[in-house]
Amino acid sequence: MSNIGRSMPRIDARAKVAGTEKYSVDYYSPNFLWAGVKRAGIPHAVIKGIEVESARKIPGVIDVLTYKDVRGSNRQGVVRKDQPVLADDRVRHCGDALALVIAEDKETINRALEQVVLDYDPLPAVFDPEDALKPDAPLVHEDNRSFFDIMEKLGLKPGSPFVQEDNPEKNLLLKGSLSTGDAKKAFNECNAVVKACFEVPFQEHAYLETEAGWAVLNKEGTLEIVCSTQTPFRDRTEVAEAIGIEQERIRIIAPYCGGAFGGKDGITVQSLLALAALRCPGRPVKMWWNREESFVSSAKRHRARLYYRLGAKPDGRFHALEARIYYDTGPYDHLGGVVMALGLEHSGGPYRIPNTDLKAWSVYTNNPVGGAFRGFGVVQATAAMEQMVDMLAVKLGISPLELRLCNTLKKGDKNPIGVTMTGSTGIEDCLRSLKNTPLWKDRENWKASAGQFKRRGTGIAAVMQGMGYGPVVPDIGNARIELTEDGKFRVYCGVVDMGQGNATTYAQIACEVLNQDISNMELVLPDTSRTLPSGSASASRTTYTFGNAVIGAAEILKERIVNRANELSPDGTGDDMALIPGGVRNVLTGEEISLAEIVVLLDDADRKVTFHFQAPVSNESPSQDPILRLHGVPHVVFSFGAHAACVELDELTGRIEVKKYIAVTDCGRIINPQLFEQQMHGGIAQGIGYALMEELVVEDGVINTRDLATYVIPGAMDIPDMDSVTVDSYEKTGPFGLKGAGEISCNGPLAAIANALADACGVRVFRLPMIPERVLAELHNNK
Amino acid sequence: MKISFILNGNDTCIDVAPDKRVIDVLREDLGLTGTKEACGSGECGACTVLSDGETRLSCLMVAAQLQGKNLVTIEGIGSENALHPIQEAFIEHGAVQCGFCTPGMVLSTLALLKTNPSPSREEIREGISGNLCRCTGYQKIVDAISAAAVRMGGQDK
Amino acid sequence: MRNVFIPETQKDLFDIIADKPEAFLFAGGTDLFVKLRSGLVDAADLVSLERINDLKGVEDNGDEVFIGACTTHSALLADSVIKKHFPVLVKSLMVLGSPQIRNMGTIGGNIITASPAGDALPPLYLLGAEVELKKKYSSRLVSIKDFIKGPGETDLAPGEVLTGVRLRKYPEYNLHHYEKVGQRNSLAISIVSFAAVLNINDAGIIARARFAWGSAGPTVITCEDAEDFLAGRPLSRESLEHAAYLARKAVTPIDDVRASAEYRRQVSGNLILRIEGLLNRSE
């Protein structure tokens, strides 16, 4: 029976359910030192001095380090390196790290942190992206050193188009502009136009395992770091440069993460641990951010303000779209440009729109850091666009599902940024499939069955998510597989499994190609000394890219094994040998040789294979802007989906409950249905939280909701049973036809729920989330 | 302070500060890292343990309270080679993703099924309402618990 | 390092208190340990009340019931006397915290914490709760509304311990209601909570109604105006709407990170309307 399409149980589940799997936080030893960080607590200031002497004197404190102790560049970041390991010139947000305390135990750390004092001159701060672009706005980064570094990297000279010598727009991390046709003219040709402004909030990842790890400088001079990260290889490069140590001396080991969702896509504890370990050679140092510190310091989903205008012809064909999207990226790049670019690329949704004028800005402020979070800019854009579509449907008097079907992309169409859909494009199938579901067909009954003080409605959203890194940054996977001396296949995973189960999928893919049972597979989790660089666990790429690499490696290894077996069989030909679980069989004679026997006959180079896969890229250029292109525009493989939510509104309190939810998805061929469903459910749940209850309340740069009591994520009684359905689809560039599934499910809930609310009572909340208070206020205004 | 209690069925004696949090005693002093900390303030349930058969939050307990108690952690529920039916069901039904909430979920499930051997899906959701999960959306956990209930002798509801 | 005392008798408890008057008492610890962690409280010594058995349990004394202060919410939810006579209290406990917090938290703790959002407090006000406060050689009984003075503030004197709660049975009430509005369906601090007990006769006339709100003021709010207005009136949308209007004038909510005062005010009134639908359902 084929492994593809089979719900093989996760290989990591046993140890996790028994409580024996060790996460980064689970390492302890009496020998461990602890490290802790003094955080700024103010949003913007000039640093005059950081007083650490009194802290240093506390018994049990080994040392207190500041920027003066950082030998390297003291700057980290994926695209722009603008974030200090330890703040040197300025404080730019409340979570900035000022000093690193190294001590014998946790209690001493806390006492020492209280003694560290910042001497500073406060600076006027900026907390809104549109304000931050104004000429009189305070500058978050006085020098634009990191911007010029990129220009240099791209070979751009000041004065070339898209690049100004002196960024006239203040506090700009990145801006992007994409257009097709002539939107300005086209709006005059529309019969129905709707316009709106949406404000979507910061969202906290709230992974249960907060940022943590430990590090030691061992006697060989290698700095070994074990940490909860999505990017061990990239981390290594960043740490090396920031701290000032050769990359080759750093080893990063990435156990399973207790959740990440993008929040561990980049440096969290790594450089700090490195600093501490270098200071105390031979002594392991551990750091574990408690929940409050995680809130204050970690990156968030970008808060955004989106201005949309959408116009159509009387038959419902979309004719013009204008979008202006402002992403609040906080003080550091932290992938904020890439987020903006992806959001911009998706701002028109999965539709044909012949005239578009789309602009986005990713703007520095003194708010918390905006960074990678599942969905990555697309969540925000979808939240807006999918509500616009429904608003237009109302104006036109056309059903929201029919309106979408009228405009939906097919393979070969040009999308709203003018790029051709060359890969599998199953959005129409998703919508048609949704149309046939009982949930959709039953929506009038649902509405009519509302009880006293309740209103019920159904809403839909069409979603899409581009996979990978875009046309410039190589999306690569390097898989290494070896046949071990025991006759087992060992797969060296280059990409982190942060809970999405890709480790299991790699094993499953290897089992399929090599015709093995899972019991004959071993996996090595990402470790920069043992596995190979294979990009980040992000961008919905991990199974697609690394899966393809695993297939490549497994095919080669299979061939070698079979050929070797063949050579041993005197009468056989190449076709007679086949891999079977645990061995090789001559299909003619039935003779079998075990893998343990055959491995002895293979030399080292034969039994180990490495395969390099690079994901295909688009060969279209919707824009001439090389910086936008660097940041990922355009992608080439997209997943699609159609979601529907049935909600119940309580008129007395404004509370919305999602009672039913369905997601119909095109992710190509599904390798492991259970894992796929896990991704759908989890993303929907995060989307429901984002829609209804998750609001990071930030006032003047200070997070007021900095624990799980005030920042509420959904519990078991807040998420309904969800249906996940797939459409028949095959992405020919994907492993066995697969496309990325990690992010897309997050994109649907907010708009689906908002549309359902409007269906229930005619009301929309433009400042999200739809907390009861806002809903109730709108209901009153509507009366 | 010397504290004697029963831990996962074994008589145990420890010598720790009386005000050390039980979660820290388990993880640091006893090497039992299966019990997790995700908030430290009683909001997430990751630190759930069974004390005299009742679920409690070990991040809000101090060592002195352990004296004479019968404490059960995830390590006492089953081992990788001999899993409890609840753990089997979690694996089978895809209820484990990142796995960080899982130990707490298993313990809450055990407590739930003891008092309510045939819970409805609604009752299951209520039973795990003190355990946050960020990965699964809860549905497969509910599926697993439903199945575990049947396996353990309850009726299919 | 703090000392943690765990007495097993009231006598031992009072001896410890005399010896260490600065020590912090805790029953479930769900409030104290959170405050210790956040630095809101700084304690040198801790005293656990959880092993003092005569501070636990439910005693049915005919017209009244006495609940030991250290009785956990779970124990109360499982108690047949509580379930039979105080459905409004049961409803509030069912939505308090989470299963684990209900196993640890106690009724005495909920009262002493005196949070404006304390879930059990509105029902306790409606049930005419009196708290028993003991010192080594004396004891007094104080009505809960006189005992709780403000957010986190009670009339507890130095050296005093809250040892129990006395509730009167009100067999005349035939409609018991509790609703909590939170940011999610469990593990939620209430944004507004509403408890109601009513006596409705066969003709649908309200003989008596009593209401109490949580998270709508510094302590539990009651509204005699609304109660007086409804007495003798039919249970109808119209009469409830006027009662709601009166209630909105009585509550004194604040803005905080969870909700605005205006929302709390509006909803405090709205929740009265919910009663209309209850008559058709079983309690």
Strand content of chain A: 15-25%
Counting H and I runs of at least 4 residues, what is the number of helices of chain A?
23
Helix content of chain C: 25-40%
Instruction: Give the rounded overall mean pLDDT of chain C.
Output: 96
Task: Tell me the radius of gyration of chain A.
Answer: 27 Å
Number of strands of chain C: 13
Unreliable spans of chain A are none
Low-confidence stretches of chain C are none
Tell me the count of domains of chain A.
3
Domains of chain C (count): 2
Q: Per CATH, which architecture of the largest domain in chain C?
A: 2-Layer Sandwich
The biggest beta sheet of chain C is recorded as:
5 strands, antiparallel
Distance between the termini of chain C: 50 Å
For CATH, the homologous superfamily of the largest domain in chain A is named as: Aldehyde oxidase/xanthine dehydrogenase, molybdopterin binding domain
Number of helices of chain C: 13
The name CATH uses for the topology of the largest domain in chain A is Aldehyde Oxidoreductase, domain 4
Biggest sheet, spatial arrangement of strands of chain C: 4-5-10-6-7
Summarize this structure as a short list of keywords or feature phrases:
heterotrimer; B: 157 residues; alpha+beta; Ubiquitin-like (UB roll); DNA polymerase, domain 1; 2 domains; five-stranded mixed beta sheet; 5 helices; 32% helix; C: 283 residues; Uridine Diphospho-n-acetylenolpyruvylglucosamine Reductase, domain 3; Enolase-like, domain 1; three-stranded parallel beta sheet; globular
Structural summary, described in words:
The complex is a heterotrimer of chains A (783), B (157) and C (283). Chain A has 783 residues and is of the alpha+beta class. Chain A contains 23 helices and 28 strands. Chain A is 28% helix and 23% strand. In chain A, the strands form seven sheets. In chain A, strands 3-5-1-12-9-10-11 form a seven-stranded mixed sheet, with helices on both faces. Chain A has a five-stranded mixed sheet with strand order 7-15-14-13-8. A four-stranded mixed sheet of chain A has the order 16-24-25-28, with helices on both faces. In chain A, 63% of the residues are buried. Chain B folds into two domains: 2-76, Roll (Ubiquitin-like (UB roll)); 85-151, [2Fe-2S]-binding domain (DNA polymerase, domain 1), CATH 1.10.150.120. Helices cover 32% and strands 15% of the residues of chain B. Chain B has five helices and five strands; from the N terminus they run E-E-H-E-E-E-H-H-H-H. In chain B, helix 2 (85-92) crosses helix 5 (139-151). Chain B is globular and about 50 Å long. By secondary structure, chain C is of the alpha+beta class. Chain C is built from 13 helices and 13 strands. In chain C, helix 10 runs antiparallel to helix 11 (237-250). In chain C, 52% of the residues are buried. Chains in contact: A-B, A-C, B-C. Chains A and B meet through helix 1 and helix 21 of A and helix 2, helix 3, helix 4 and helix 5 of B.
